[in-house]
Amino acid sequence: MIDKRCKLCLINSRVNDLIKLKRDDKIPDLLNKMAYYLISNRDRDELFVNTFNYIKEIIKDEDPYRELKKYLNKIGRESSLLVKKELIENNWDLNLALKFSAAANIIDTNVLGYEAADLKDALYDEPKIFNDINIPKDKEIYLVLDNSGEVYIDLLLKESLKRNGYDVRTVIRKDSYEIDVSLNDEIGSDLVIEGNNSPIKSLKSGFIIAKGIANLEAFLFSDHKLETLHLFRAKCEVLAERFNVSKNTPIIIDGLSLLKEIKKNNLQ
């Protein structure tokens, strides 16, 4: 069951998309389509992707936030210089790189209740870590990327993994979704998944490090066969309540612990 506040977040997010994109004339069409999707009882991650695709369709723009993504990447590049310096000084410590990556998940567009913060300041927020971090060295690691801007911090996580003896590949969506990294952006990737659904459901082997809320939600509605580690912020009241943290707290949690928390708190 989808929390009623998640439905409100969906409506708020997509209406705000049209307002930001100066196409508020299309709001009635959007609301009609959203009502259909909500009645169809789709998974939460599918609802967000399908409604964003509808926006792209009605405004005839395959990447509505391309300019915003370029701006965010500029900020991310600048911030990554500070992070790289610290990682070098700490011999590319993997736990430090994971903390930076989780904290970098401060960038977003329309999450209901989301409070923006300066990326450079937010990088030093201490994450809530729910379990011992255990990334296996005998499996290929798939780092599933999320938002533009913060991706430059995630690429330093990739570098830390490599320097610590891991075989790691970055993964992105091919087509645009909100401000997420996609194929036509300036960021290259080792693996590109067709469409614009979260790559989580397409990966069939290895160990997944998943950035952000959308990839977390996709995992919740997957078959849970792969081991995962999730790096994200509790950007909304729903997540803050479910994980018993203050809103915007960075979180590091493995897939098994995540499912236990979800079951305990009835997030789905």
Question: Strand share of the residues?
Answer: 5-15%
Structural class: alpha/beta
- State the helix count: 10
Strand order of the largest sheet: 1-7-6-5-2-3-4
**Total strands:** 7
Average pLDDT works out at 92
**Number of discrete domains:** 2
Shape: globular
The proportion of residues forming helix, as a percent range, comes to 40-55%
What distance lies between the first and last C-alpha atoms, to the nearest angstrom?
5 Å
Give, in order, the helices and strands.
HHHHHHEEHEEEHEHEH
Poorly predicted runs are: none
The radius of gyration computed from the alpha-carbon positions, rounded to a whole number of angstroms, is: 18 Å
Tell me about the biggest sheet? 7 strands, mixed
Mind explaining what this structure looks like?
The protein has a 7-stranded mixed beta sheet with strand order 1-7-6-5-2-3-4, with helices on both faces. The chain is of the alpha/beta class. Helix content is 46%, strand content 12%. Helix 8 (212-220) links the parallel strand 5 (207-211) and strand 6 (227-233). The protein folds into 2 domains: 4-59; 66-265, no CATH class. The chain is globular.
What's the layout of helices and strands?
Blueprint: H1 4-20, H2 27-39, H3 44-59, H4 66-89, H5 94-103, H6 119-122, E1 128-129, E2 141-144, H7 151-163, E3 168-173, E4 191-193, E5 207-211, H8 212-220, E6 227-233, H9 237-242, E7 250-254, H10 255-265
Helix pairs in contact: 1-2, 1-3, 2-3, 4-7, 5-7
Overview in brief:
By secondary structure, the chain is α/β, with parallel strands linked by helices.
Task: Please tag this protein with its features.
268 residues, alpha/beta, 2 domains, seven-stranded mixed β-sheet, 7 strands, 46% helix, 12% strand, globular
